[in-house]
Design goal:
The protein has 85 residues and is mainly alpha-helical. The protein has one domain. It contains two helices and two strands; from the N terminus they run H-E-E-H. The chain has a two-stranded antiparallel ribbon.
Length: 85
């Protein structure tokens, strides 16, 4: 994100939202011990679509750079098979 021009304070805030989550499970009305996820985002996390877009933009930028530097070349594909109905 820093390479894409995001301010470090913004990056720190996003990372804090992702890395400081904790869970506990209620079983038969009793709250269990707190545990911490080791990776990934929470299901339904509102940040998820935005982080996906940021990562996609980063990958797209890397691919454009690699193409410009001659490290990545496109492939053309023509499907000449007859269409089956």
């Amino acid at each position: 994100m820093s390479r894409m021009g995001f301010d470090q304070k913004w990056i720190d805030a996003i990372m804090k939202c992702i890395s400081t989550v904790s869970y506990s499970v209620v079983v038969n009305g009793n709250i269990g011990e707190i545990f911490y996820p080791t990776r990934g985002l929470r299901q339904g996390d509102p940040l998820s679509p935005f982080l996906f877009l940021i990562c996609g933009e980063g990958l797209s930028s890397l691919m454009r750079s690699a193409t410009r530097d001659g490290l990545l070349k496109g492939v053309k594909f023509i499907d000449e098979r007859p269409i089956k109905y």
